Amino acid sequence: MSKKALTIALKIFFAVVYFLVFLFLIQWVFHFLPWNVYTDLLTVACWVIALIASVGLAHYTVEKIKDTFGS
To answer: Which parts of the chain span the membrane according to its record (predicted)?
Structure first.
């Protein structure tokens, strides 16, 4: 497996893991709120923010791993 393919695989893995952690936290927070349209819209907005944040954190994590252990 080439270094580029390994980097992409690690970014995908970390993005999925971070996204699942964010989804768990979002579900935990919104579980206690009353159900209405605004809560649903806010939940979807949080999902989008969590997706963007998880991709950014995955990129940062892989770059730190590459810096620590060499490329």
So the answer is: 12-30, 42-62
